[in-house]
Write a structure and sequence with these properties.
327 residues; 4 helices; alpha+beta; five-stranded antiparallel sheet; 19% helix
């Protein structure tokens, strides 16, 4: 019996050593966890996660100082056009003062309705432009008639919707805001002359030195240099559409034209070819297409004149307008 008792004692010692080893291993693991996971966290200050605030889009800045343009010294004289006694004469479709003369006519021809504002200004300073919210930048829009009301414009049309593009020439009221070209560029100078440039021949800095006062970059050009209509246009908007355009007779004498289309007032609209012919028939020496379609808007005394089929005009980034200090 002695031998079995000895075996039992040996087995007891072995199991005892195994148990001790297990206890030591467990204790070691706890110590490791204490020093490597628990103690490093003690004393730390909990700092909440910081979510970066979104960076607001910056408003583009003009390429030169945005100081108001110097008033032009050039005056335009037209016999019997302006009010002689200095008193403004205002009717539903006309306005006349010592500075400005505007006559609105509506024309219905077959399946076409269009509007013409015949405009004379004593000085180019009365031919102005305005931005939506008085701010230059993309994504800034208002209804053209609201912009016109805010600036006490006598009459106005929607502009080239420069804010829909990141690339196009923008010169407004004598300030250069953007110089990259997009298409044909129309320029009105301080001396009242209006000229249209091909995209590849235009230099914004040079034309600013030449007295550029307003410039739009939508297009296309509508008349040749001799006043004859251009007949072929490389444009995806050449077919019949609502239209907005500017015509030029001579320094100080211009016209705004807006065409109803897409069924509004029973009007189909005009193709670019027919729009060019219209300006040639009006006797203009130069003419330029602005943004049309649902952007088209003509305003008189703050009220929209033209119509859109089952819709309003869209909000836009800018207008072309005639103002008068006598109003």
């Amino acid at each position: 019996m002695e031998k079995p008792e000895k075996i039992k004692r040996v087995r007891f010692k072995v199991w005892l050593m195994v148990l001790i080893d297990i206890l030591l291993i467990g204790a070691g693991s706890n110590v490791f966890a204490l020093f490597h996971h628990v103690l490093p966290e003690i004393g730390k200050v909990a700092v909440p996660a910081i979510t970066p605030s979104p960076t607001p889009a910056s408003t583009p800045q003009p390429l030169q100082s945005a100081e108001p343009a110097m008033e032009s010294d050039t005056q335009f004289f037209f016999d019997g056009v302006f009010a002689q006694d200095g008193q403004s004469e205002k009717t539903e479709n006309s306005y006349k003062s010592k500075n400005v003369s505007i006559t609105l006519t509506t024309h219905d021809v077959d399946d076409l309705r269009y509007y013409v504002q015949d405009i004379y200004v004593r000085k180019i300073d009365y031919f102005k432009t305005a931005f939506a919210q008085d701010t230059f930048g993309t994504g800034i829009k208002e209804y053209p008639y609201d912009i016109a009301q805010e600036h006490d414009a006598i009459c106005a049309i929607s502009g080239d919707y420069y804010g829909a593009r990141k690339k196009s020439v923008v010169i407004r009221n004598g300030v250069l805001y953007r110089s990259d070209t997009y298409d044909d560029i129309c320029v009105i100078y301080n001396d009242g002359v209006m000229r249209v440039f091909d995209e590849d021949e235009f230099d914004a800095e040079k034309e600013m030195q030449n007295g550029a006062y307003q410039a739009w970059d939508f297009g296309p050009n509508l008349l040749n240099e001799d006043g004859t209509p251009i007949e072929k246009f490389n444009s995806r908007i050449a077919s019949e559409n609502p239209r907005t355009a500017i015509g030029y007779y001579e320094p100080g004498h211009y016209c705004f034209v807006v065409v109803d289309g897409r069924g509004a007032n029973g009007s189909d609209g005009l193709s670019l070819k027919d729009l060019a012919q219209l300006f040639a028939d009006l006797g203009c020496k130069a003419a330029y297409n602005l943004d049309g379609g649902r952007t088209s808007c003509m305003v008189m005394y703050g009220e929209m004149i033209n119509k859109h089929y089952e819709s309003n005009c869209r909000k836009s980034s800018d207008i072309v307008m005639i103002c008068d200090e006598e109003q």
